[in-house]
Design a protein that fits this description.
The complex is a heterodimer of chains A (about 450) and B (about 300). The longest helix of chain A is centred in the C-terminal third of the chain and has 42 residues, at about 365-405. The two termini of chain A are about 30 Å apart. Chain A has about 450 residues and is α+β, with helices and mostly antiparallel strands. Chain A has helices at about 5-30, 80-110, 120-135, 140-180, 185-205, 210-225, 270-280, 285-305, 335, 355-360, 365-405, 410-445; strands spanning about 40-45, 50-55, 65, 70-75, 230, 240, 250, 255, 315-320, 325-330. Chain B is mainly alpha-helical and about 300 residues long.
Amino acid sequence: MTIPAYTGMETALRGLQAAQMAIDTTGQNISNANNANYTRQVVNLSETPDLSLPASSASGQTLQLGQGVDVASISRIRDQFLDIQYRAQNSSTSSSNTTTTLLTQAQGALAEPSSGGVSEQLTAFWNSWSDLANAPTSDSAKQNVVESATTLTDTFNSVVSQLSSLQSQAGTQLSSLTASNGPIQNDANQIATLNGQISKAMGAGQTPNDLLDKRDQLLDNLSQYGNVSVSDPGNGLLTVNFGGDTSTPLVNGASANSATSLALSTTSGGSVGALESLSGPSGQIGSYLSSLSSFASTLSGAVNALHTNPPFFTTSSTTNAQGSTTTTLAVNPTLAADASQIKATATSNTGANEVALGIAQLAGGTVDHNYSSFVSKVGSDLSNATSTQNTAQSLLTAIGNQRQSVSGVSLDEEMTNLIQYQRAYQASARVMTTIDSTLDQLINHTGTVGL
Amino acid sequence: MIGRVTTLMTSQTTLAEIDNAAQRVANTQEQLSSGKKINQASDDPYGMGVVLNVQGQLGALTAYDRNITDGTAYAQAGQTAMSNISNIVQRVRELVVSGANGSNSSTQLSADASEVSQLVDAIKQEANTQYNGQYVFGGTSGNQPYTTTGSDAFQGNSGSSGSVTRLIGPNTTVQVNVDLSSVLGSGQTGGSGDGKLLDTLRTVLSDMNNGDTGALSKDLTKIDTNFSSLTTLQASLGATSDRLQLASSRVSDLNLADTQVLSNTQDADMAQTEINYSTEQVAYQAALKAGANIVQSSLMDFLK
């Protein structure tokens, strides 16, 4: 049984090298401790194949002598199921953020409760009719009716136009997201490029950890715009489906499709889904506009039924660019120009006031309730959106924490590893020193008896 | 249970908690500074509906209150005029009584007659009383009821007996005028009299001029009949005033009740909010302290 003289030296060297690589990896982890997109890396060690030695004479068995350690790979610690959960939650958080932001603006447009809101103006309008009923022939009372009605219609029309422009703002945001130079296309192009690089590296037997981290970060980023589903054929060429479009993938291996060619809808998730909904006629803002249209026709219908000749209010409806019908109110121009044509009575008795009295009695009725329930609706939509947003945000934090728990760097752990690998390095060096002194004994001191 | 606790996790969680605590403090601060717990519809959508409805009701109550004040003044103008008319009628009655005695000279009687003629004009003047540009006894016609001198004919039309109403509550109106022409009549227009007050006074006038004391005694009965219908009309307008006064105090009560509802719905409970604020401040400071201590100690502190 012979053992090659330098085998032990080689074994110790491998130990030194493995410890050094482990210390380097620990250093890399520590450097990236505050990098949120970094995935911690570990050195996977494996034994070097044994050296078979001829059998010892007694047992007749072959002996296997260990030859030390090999660094098999340096791998990322990442749970892909947490990635899927994180991206799904990121989509819904981003969706409710977008919704909350726009609905907050919608609620702001109503300016309730304040003296600038429609409901206060409505009360002032009813009261001006009540005053006219007290003095049916008074021109100043009639002028006051026109003034209060004009203030009411101005306020109402400005609410309508603010909501309408909010809706088109949502449409503009949506098209800038999906534009060919927009953020979605940008992410898609980068993912496609990374797919190509990763596939090449993997083909050469490498594990490109930094590129993989970069790609995961891009996928996380993409998920805020819409639902992302990823399928991995194993060669690094990911297929990424976006926004619920299963037929056309956004990224197909090393090539990216145009984001505008995807079939995106209100169910696309993320900010795209939220904006699809908010900018459309059947979305929340669209429903507010149609509520306001129905309020306008209720108000003008109720008042015009009493003040028939000429009708007190005129309404005009148009369809805006987003497909919603918007209705604006105006005081009949004839009456606005000449308030004295307002009639407190439909009879020839100028002192009668049944029309003015009738309109004053509309106060607190259907018209008022119509508007106050509309304001409540807007408020409860926003309140729901806000609580959804809070829940989504907490869930996102929770899943993010779980992911950090798996993939994040713990400094305590790294310090422990550092000590461990440092000691391993020292010990390997000691082994080498020992073998060296053994050889020294053999080479320099053997056969020198009596010299 | 999360197994590993990493550096970034701790700092991110702490940051999120600080944000939450700051948000809560800001919300409570808004309530404290505005004194209201509903500052926008989303704070309490149902409460917001209540607030808007109650504010609308309060606005309507303001209008009712104005209408009641206006109606009271309108009725008051009518009452004053009618009480003047009733004084005038009493004066005529005195003259008739002394004329019917037969002790007055014909000169005296014709002097009385000219006074009665003046008094008739004064009655018509009172019947033309205006309130805020409207003839209070003109009904809804808008016409002046009588010409002050000359013809006693009532100038009204179909609207003259119309009721002038004021809105004093939801779907509640009250009539603030009376049809004085039903008592005054149209004198002796068209030859034959209608037996109403002006007709009676014209008869008195001619009887005095004629020195017919017997007829004057009969006129006394007519005057009493006319006077009693005038009193009835006065009483009915007096009842209207009472009704308006009741309505006014009811509106004040409702106003108080609605203001309380509004306050209960939208005003913040200051004591409660102050306590919440202190609690949230403590929580916020604790979160900040945790943030200051984060990643302060690690294994490195204990390694040489």
